[in-house]
Design a protein that fits this description.
homodimer, 352 residues, alpha/beta, 12 helices, 12 strands, DNA-binding
Chain lengths: 352, 352
DNA sequence: TTGAAAGCGCTAACAA
DNA sequence: TTGTTAGCGCTTTCAA
């Protein structure tokens, strides 16, 4: 490591080298030089010097001075899940496209952690923030209030900032109906054989459950309000719920509405302890799309939320000066079994 | 929005309110007050005021002054994939545990984008950087050189900074052997019926291929060097490769070593156009674990890389003052079909 | 067309 | 035990 540990060049270094003042150098290097009517020749000289000395602006200094950082953050519940990871992927592309710097962090669905994390982000003077699937969006708002940050909720709505969410009611309907219709007319699914597992008491779950019930009422006899087992968003608790059901009934319901791919992983854990035959005549609907999930040995119908649509809408709202505090709804898409959809990775050019 | 848009409190505000000097306030609020022998009572007073006025430090200012930011970055090839998203999840937990602020960004496996992104991160004065699966780790090093940033490569090794990678040779052997042994002795897999698809000319692929060939030589007759189809890391190109093979041979190989879950998605796309029966007697080995992938209708054997082990090792190296420039190897794990492993999400406490 | 100078909020000598 | 002071590197009036 015989590298010159020499410090990074600053505008002062360039100012000395070029014989101009720091402010001139600054203007040239941050693009405001046209406005300052700086001579093309000085500009060129300075740019050359900057190149030669590998100048890069100190963004902390710039941010401190201008109280904006160029940082745009996405706050996720978790990374490790195809819904949110595709959201991160899409988000990054958008932010890069606007010439800003994307940063993605997760807060584990813990309201306190959400607030603390956002507080940190604010301390770094991030300019804009998209909060996805927050447990307490309004709590996050409070933290942001007065900081001048642009805030949009996504996936789960808040009441203090504009929100963009999926049409979970419609999605719930679509998915439930697809499950029901997947059974043959000669052996139709009964209402008490169609269960919803997963989710919790949040807006998305409530809406999906509402859709689930509505379809049950429209298409089936029997009590539409039963057969709902919230488990929270965790594989473990979902697994437990499936185990308990199985313990009690000696089998699984034939129709299964699983309220997120995370909960679906609970079903995988259950499957690991039981032979494939047990799932021979089961139909699963999963709210959220996972390409591998779509090809399991039983029919899996999925809902893909329009992540790109939601992110796009969120940035539209960001760029409004004073967006209305309302909730925008984006339509999700039904995905039949054995379907491999294109994803955000397909937008990336292949290497080699 | 009748919120006071009043500016955030600074140490000067608190200095006035408390009657102490800014430096005292600063010391109290950043933990160096013990060292400065500040009276417990003044400290308490100041902390009270800070609380009351919701003071939070301006981290840009602190970073500018101290030329460290508290930011620790992870550079990923892509987000949208269970290997890297679990890496992000694990990384965040580690960084949070050290009281720093994690930020995760992706660079699409593009060497130029990798360098530019890192340059930006440096401009924000990040303190430490983990570069995962970089196409050009040494290029990234060059950008970091002289910036004082701690750098560790992970997943794919470099020659200029310490690296932590999986034992891809051993993993390749494990996986290949498991595929071969999955076939019955009365109808064993032939060498020309065992193909490796995916990957490209990087260290990981080369090592896996070396393991693949070694096992072929040890366990099978025939040419061990054939049957290798690199496709790059993209679903699309992998799909094309499968299609072309099928076009040519009228079937798929019975033994399939797929060089990453991303390439496995290419196989999914192929599957979407062909009936399940075509895959009836196929055995797939996938280098990388995906819980849903493990339960597909044919036997899928997977390799799970020890993400937590690698991240832990990486941070160990970071904390060494001058770590040796060498490559540390971590053992991956073979995952039999139909296995639902615990992941980083399981470390998160369940809500509700 | 350019320069001088103030200051963003914080830290860390050095004084007192 | 605490205050004074000088910047960190940049932007941005205001003057020239």
């Amino acid at each position: 490591m015989e590298n010159r540990q020499k410090k990074k060049a600053t505008i002062y270094d360039l100012s000395v080298l070029s014989g101009s003042s720091p402010s001139t150098v600054s203007a040239v290097l941050n693009g405001t030089w046209q406005k300052r009517r700086i001579k093309e020749s000085t500009a060129k000289l300075i740019r050359g010097l900057a190149e030669e000395h590998q100048y890069t602006a100190n963004l902390q200094a710039r941010g401190l001075r201008s109280s904006r950082s160029g940082l745009v953050a996405l706050l996720l519940p978790v990374h490790d899940n195809r819904y949110f990871s595709s959201m991160a992927q899409t988000f990054e592309a958008h932010v890069r496209g606007r010439g800003q710097c994307p940063i993605v962090v997760s807060a584990c669905r813990d309201p306190e952690e959400e607030r603390q994390t956002v507080e940190q982000l604010i301390a770094y003077s991030i300019d804009e923030l998209i909060v996805a699937g927050a447990t307490d969006p309004d709590g996050v708002y409070e933290v942001c209030a007065g900081s001048g940050i642009k805030l949009v909720n996504i996936d789960l709505p808040g009441t203090k900032a504009p929100s963009v969410i999926s049409d979970n009611y419609q999605g719930g309907r679509l998915l439930t109906e697809a499950i029901v219709r997947h059974f043959n007319a000669d052996d139709p699914l009964q209402a008490d054989d169609l269960y919803l597992f997963g989710g919790r008491d949040d807006h998305a779950s409530r809406e999906r459950i509402r859709g689930f019930r509505a379809i049950k009422r429209e298409l089936m006899d029997g009590d539409a309000d039963r057969c709902i087992v919230p488990t929270g968003y965790s594989p473990r608790t979902a697994q437990t719920a499936f185990e308990q059901f199985y313990e009690r009934e000696g089998r699984l319901p034939r129709g299964l509405f699983v309220n997120s791919s995370i909960n679906f992983e609970g079903l995988l854990r259950f499957m690991a302890h039981h032979p494939n035959e047990m799932f021979a005549d089961i139909v699963v609907g999963c709210y959220d799309y996972d390409p591998f999930g779509s090809f399991l040995p039983f029919p899996v119908i999925m809902i893909r939320q329009d992540v790109d649509g939601m992110i796009t809408k969120a940035f539209d709202l960001m760029s409004e000066s004073r967006p209305a505090i309302r909730t925008h709804v984006v339509q999700p898409e039904l995905v039949p079994p054995r379907t491999a959809l294109q994803g955000p990775l397909d937008a990336i050019k292949d290497i080699e």
